[in-house]
Amino acid sequence: MELTVCCPVFPTEDKQLVETALANLFLIQESEEQETETYIELKTLWNDPSSLSSIRQRIHELRIIDVVRKRLVSNWDDLNAMTHLCFEKQAAFMDKLRVVDDAQENPPLGFIEIAIKFQNTSEFENFLDWFTPRISSNQVADY
Q1: Could you tell me the pTM of the whole model?
Q2: In this structure, what are the phi and psi dihedrals at residue 117, rounded to the nearest 5 degrees?
Q3: For the chain, which end, N or C, has fewer CB atoms within 10 Å of the first or last residue's CB respectively?
Q4: Which domains are assigned to the chain?
């Protein structure tokens, strides 16, 4: 499994504030910068799924497991064996977790995207079962 976190830093933004937003969601020691015509992109790569443990815990604490699972499944690209998940950058800066439906939403300052590439569909399904296990109808009633 290969994980990539990307986040744009627009000219109107303070790069340190964007780095704070990233640090609020992920345990990032350092990221590389890539310049585009309109912004700088901060990018971090991992090969260890345990780097997602803290965000997994927050998803479970917030009880948004089903929402996150649906986004991961709907963003699944079978041909390339990858999926992605987007978080609102401004919410992350405030140490909040808000999942963005990138097919329908485009926050003004963009979003933090985590792309996850797998060896195959089976690895993706195992990841889903760990990261966002299926919720039984009894568990839903507890919410």
Answers
A1: 0.86
A2: -105, 135
A3: C
A4: 2-142 (3.30.1440.10)
